[in-house]
Specification:
15 helices; GMP Synthetase, Chain A, domain 3; 412 residues; elongated; 4 domains; N Utilization Substance Protein A, Chain:P, domain 4
């Protein structure tokens, strides 16, 4: 019976990666509780667990007396003789008895098993928590085994990893059975066990992919200085080379873009702009807003603000589709960037446009107001300016600004 119990514990050690000495200590504690429950809290005992031999030995030590006053620590000479002791023991000697597990009864043995299972589960939780806490920030590869409404569950070395919606790449499709790469972002302790959170949208995932694909980054020749991401859409990354012979951007992009393309494919075709880092914030802002051409940059380093001046036709490039370019530049540089538009002189507009061609954009009511006040073309409205348009009672300041911006946008 003892050998069977120990073998089952030894198997747990092998399967769950538990420390053998820790498990031996747990077994000693649990069987110590059994002895105390049966023989009392003051009982003197010794438990020897030998995982290699597959054996548990329990020794109970009591003093031999004529009349027992404390049964937890004493045993009568009469009872010793009844046990058929072959040694010549006398009153005052210590009597050491080897206890058989079966003598504890089924109820106590069942209790011991329950306590053991609970302690082992706690140890297993600690093992998992420590194992993954040590690799936070590293990439792991697993298989998707369940897709929920918001979360994805991934199997990694028989451990469950959680990919929440907030850590997924938007519009990326996840199918059961697919292999997936992600970064260990966080390990949380909960009453039900550790929760291992992985991420594909975190900046660190992009950084680790660069380290894998670009040996110069892994070797420390090129440093990643800053990363800004809108996962699944676009990213900017600033890099710096410590070797004058190596072009940081060229090394990251690779011959015919082979290195960067491998990362782009992994990130569901996320566009990645790689720029050379500079300690000069003006140069860094200029590079981060490429391909737009800027006229001037005014900095407030204390407030971490920048005002960039550019021609009207460059504003859309600075802002980018849905504002993504300027948002990423703000994240990358750490400066709050405002745009100061350089107005195009009216004489530089190449051709005029009939207002009827803009009727749909202006709206019928606004179009009729302008026509009724003898504004027939787009340039006539622009030349009139706010002062003349203010004479039209039905137009508010806000509406006038809207009309002027709309007409100017037709020339961009």
């Amino acid at each position: 019976m003892n050998a069977g119990i120990v073998e089952s514990f030894a198997q747990m050690v092998r399967e769950k990666g538990m420390d053998k000495d820790v498990l031996e200590g747990i077994i000693e504690d649990i069987f110590g509780l059994l002895v105390k429950k049966k023989y009392g809290e003051e009982a003197v005992f010794d438990i020897v667990v030998n995982m290699d031999k597959g054996d548990i030995e329990i020794y109970l030590e009591r003093e031999i007396v004529k009349e027992v006053e404390n049964p937890e620590k004493q045993i009568s000479i009469e009872e010793v003789n009844k046990k058929g002791n072959t040694e010549e023991l006398e009153v005052g000697d210590d009597y050491v008895e080897t206890l058989d597990l079966a003598s504890f009864g089924r109820r106590l043995i069942t209790l011991a098993k329950q306590n053991l299972n609970q302690r082992i589960r706690e140890i297993e939780k600690d093992v998992i928590y420590n194992e993954y806490s040590e690799i936070v920030g590293e990439i792991v590869v697993g298989d998707i085994y369940q897709t929920k409404r918001n979360d994805i569950l991934v199997n990694h070395n028989k451990r469950e990893l959680l990919l929440p919606r907030s850590e997924q790449i938007p519009f990326e499709r996840y199918r059961k059975g697919d292999t997936i790469r992600a970064i260990i972002k966080e390990v949380k302790k909960t009453p039900s066990g550790p929760v291992i959170i992985i991420s594909r949208s975190d900046n660190m995932f992009l950084q680790k992919l660069f380290e894998i694909e670009i040996p110069e980054i892994y070797d420390g020749i090129i440093d990643i200085k800053s990363i800004a991401r809108e996962p699944g859409e676009r990213a900017k990354i600033a890099v710096e080379s410590h070797d004058d012979r190596i072009d940081a951007v060229g090394a990251c992009v690779g011959m015919k873009g082979v290195r960067i393309h491998a990362i782009v494919r992994e990130l569901n075709n996320e566009n990645i702009d790689v720029i050379n880092y500079s300690d000069d914030p003006i140069i860094l802002i200029q590079r981060s807003l490429a391909p737009a051409k800027l006229k001037q940059i005014e900095l407030d380093e204390d407030e971490r603000k920048a005002v960039v001046s550019a021609d009207n036709d460059q504003v859309s490039l600075i802002v980018g589709r849905n504002g993504v370019n300027i948002r990423l530049a703000i994240k990358l540089t750490g400066y709050d960037i405002d745009i100061l538009r350089e107005e195009t002189p009216l004489e530089e507009y190449e051709e005029d446009m009939e207002l009827i061609d803009l009727k749909e954009e202006l709206g019928e009511e606004t179009y009729n107001l302008l026509i009724n006040n003898r504004f027939d073309t787009a340039l006539e409205v622009l030349k009139a300016g706010k002062e003349k348009l203010n004479e039209i009672e039905e137009l508010t300041e806000e509406k006038i600004d809207e009309i002027i911006e709309l007409i100017k946008s037709q020339y961009e």
